[in-house]
């Protein structure tokens, strides 16, 4: 269940934000019992520190929350979410000297801190609620939190309950809820029209498909393409068990674009949205595709298969080829594509590739503003020779291991067609608990994209 803000309540318990360098000034304006209580409890306003101030009946009258200093916020996000995790159920209100962006981050962090994945164990618990701080767009933040919740849930659900059919069901539910339309291509039509998607998914007992959702009647056009590999064994180039353990998250690109689509539709953005998801399971059987095979993509490009574990770029290639047949003003590709990206930037940054400097700047600025960190990577054209094997137009897994995330982006760029294009190579998983981000599936880049869309799309 997605968290929501509490209705305005004059009885809400105020949470006072106090920066470390402002504590003495604030204390000077308080009465002696408050100063004594703060001193007795050793409250210094360090980042994330919480102190409840009692009323005469020993109920909580106020809460002090330590804001630390600028260095604390540079090293972490959603600090205020620690209050949501620590306080008892009740209704609270945020006070203190915060900028508009800080209030927005604090409010969203509180909502995201309420996320729990309880489908298989445990049950939802009553959580503290926050009155929306003054000046924030509460409905928009609730829509963002709901989209992030959808993304997290889809990634966290194991593959036995989240295959291509279940991914389709989620997309259909979004279309029905928001008045969109959906078309799904399977079976012979998939084999004929989307040969790479079909080839990657044909070894599984769970039928592959191409999900095509459209929404909106006016405005600029935006196409989101998300990798929907619901589980990746690696195919005949079988992954070792240590690498296969998290492969339920290999549909994190699809989960992210569906979460982003939900945000866009709920907020009523004036645009025409298309969501394309190649949904497959990369399995092993007598019908699995092989190393050395040469496949022909939807657009006629031939691809030599040098590793069946580099399947994500194959299914995305067919989806991007379809998108290029009806070019959008902006096409965004989201995929949990390469381990090379994780080696380069770790799990917390969402690297992206584009030749468009203005778009890259807008995305980076948005990521900083909404605390959804992105990092631009080089779409280095001289490396294109690495994906040109000679025996076919493209190689899906160049030998040598150098620049793996870059060569994957260059591969996808060959299918993107005209128009503005950006590719995200995300992780989709939070390996270490942090404020507002428990261990497990997590959205990456969606909030930054949503914030940047007015500057990325024509008016």
TrEMBL record:
**Which PROSITE patterns does the entry link to?**
CYTOSOL_AP
Q: Taking every annotated instance into account, which residue ranges of this chain make up the domain Cytosol aminopeptidase?
A: 307-314
Family designation: Belongs to the peptidase M17 family.
Any single GO molecular-function term of the entry would be: manganese ion binding
What's an example Gene Ontology biological process for this entry?
proteolysis
Q: Which UniProt keywords apply?
A: Aminopeptidase, Hydrolase, Manganese, Protease
Tell whether Thylakoid is among the UniProt keywords. no
Q: Which domain of life is it from?
A: Bacteria
Q: Which residues cross the membrane?
A: none
Its GO CC terms?
cytoplasm
Q: What is this protein called?
A: Leucyl aminopeptidase
Which species is this UniProt entry from? Jannaschia seohaensis
């Amino acid at each position: 269940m997605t968290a929501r803000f509490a209705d305005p309540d004059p009885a809400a318990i105020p949470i006072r934000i106090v920066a470390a360098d402002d504590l003495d000034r604030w204390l000077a304006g308080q009465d002696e019992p408050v100063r004594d209580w703060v001193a007795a409890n050793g409250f210094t306003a360090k980042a994330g520190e919480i102190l409840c101030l009692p009323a005469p009946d020993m109920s909580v009258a106020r809460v002090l929350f330590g804001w630390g200093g600028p260095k604390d916020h540079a090293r972490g996000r959603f600090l205020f979410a620690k209050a949501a995790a620590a306080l008892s159920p009740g209704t609270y209100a945020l006070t203190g000297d915060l900028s508009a962006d800080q209030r927005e981050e604090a409010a969203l962090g509180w909502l995201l801190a309420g996320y729990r994945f309880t489908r298989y164990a445990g049950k939802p618990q009553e959580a503290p609620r926050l009155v929306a701080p003054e000046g924030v767009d509460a409905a928009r933040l609730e829509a963002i939190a709901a989209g992030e919740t959808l993304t997290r849930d889809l990634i966290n659900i194991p593959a036995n309950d989240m295959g291509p059919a279940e991914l389709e069901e989620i997309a259909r539910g979004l279309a029905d809820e928001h008045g969109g339309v959906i078309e799904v291509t399977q079976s012979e039509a998939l084999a004929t029209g989307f040969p790479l998607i079909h080839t990657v998914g044909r070894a599984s007992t769970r039928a592959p498909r191409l999900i095509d959702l459209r929404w909106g009647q006016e405005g600029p056009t935006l196409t989101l393409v998300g990798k929907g590999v619901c589980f990746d064994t690696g195919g005949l180039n079988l992954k070792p068990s240590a690498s296969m353990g998290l492969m339920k998250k290999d549909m994190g690109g699809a989960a992210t674009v569906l979460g982003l689509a939900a945000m866009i539709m709920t907020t009523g953005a004036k645009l025409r949205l298309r969501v394309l998801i190649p949904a497959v399971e990369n399995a092993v059987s007598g019908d699995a595709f092989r190393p050395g095979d040469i496949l022909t993509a939807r657009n006629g490009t031939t691809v030599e298969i040098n590793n069946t574990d580099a399947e994500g770029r194959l299914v995305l290639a067919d989806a991007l080829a379809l998108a290029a047949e009806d070019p959008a003003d902006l096409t965004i590709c989201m995929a949990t594509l390469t381990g090379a990206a994780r080696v380069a930037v770790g799990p917390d940054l969402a690297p992206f590739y584009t030749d468009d400097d203005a778009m890259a700047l807008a995305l980076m600025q948005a990521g900083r503003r909404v605390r959804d960190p992105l990092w631009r990577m080089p779409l280095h054209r001289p490396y294109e020779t690495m994906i040109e094997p000679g025996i076919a137009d493209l190689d899906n897994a160049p030998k040598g291991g150098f620049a793996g995330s870059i060569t994957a982006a260059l591969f996808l760029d060959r299918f993107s067609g005209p128009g503005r294009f950006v590719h995200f190579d995300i992780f989709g998983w939070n390996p270490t608990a942090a404020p507002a981000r428990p261990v497990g599936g997590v959205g990456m880049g969606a909030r930054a994209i949503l914030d940047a869309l007015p500057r990325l799309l024509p008016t």
